[in-house]
Amino acid sequence: MKKITLTILALGFVALVPKPVSAQMMPTAAEGRAVSFTATVVDMSCKSVYNLSGDDHRMCAQACFDQGIPLALLGEDGTMYLPVTLVMGSERGDKDLRGHAEHTVQVTGKVIERAGLNTILIESIKM
């Protein structure tokens, strides 16, 4: 009887242990709007600060990417989209864009607009 009581007490304490911090920090993702559009892959820093882009800027955009500066998608309508990922802290949302730097691509994904920023969860990208 004593063993059963101790087992029940132990299980009760385990049930009271909070979730790991990583599980508590994982928020629910916002609903995205499905999109498909044509865009140019640009270096966010050079495009927004110096208005640099084009074939002659391709190597610079790739070098900036390698230094941690994000690449973005500049839609034909002038809207800029920052690629993001649902996997927090483990990979870049723009990791598949380096080889497409300064090229025109066809993109499908989910756009999340928040606080004036357009982000995109890329599902596919083609030249």
How would you summarize the topology of this molecule?
Elements: H1 2-16, H2 21-25, E1 33-43, H3 44-50, H4 58-66, E2 71-75, E3 80-83, E4 104-114, E5 117-126
Parallel strand pairs: 3-5
Antiparallel strand pairs: 1-2, 1-4, 2-3, 4-5
Helix content percent band: 25-40%
Q: What's the total helix number? A: 4
Strand order of the largest sheet: 1-2-3-5-4
SS content category: alpha+beta
| Beta-strand segment tally | 5
Low-confidence parts: none
Overall tally of structural domains: 1
Order of helices and strands, N to C? HHEHHEEEE
Percentage of residues in DSSP E strands = 25-35%
Shape: elongated
Q: Ends: how far apart?
A: 71 Å
Q: Quote the average pLDDT.
A: 84
Characterize the main sheet: 5 strands, mixed, barrel
- Rg, Cα atoms, Å: 22 Å
Description:
There is one protein chain. This protein has four helices and five strands. By secondary structure, the chain is of the alpha+beta class. The chain has one domain. Strand 4 and strand 5 form a beta hairpin. The termini are far apart. The model has no long low-confidence stretch (mean pLDDT 84).
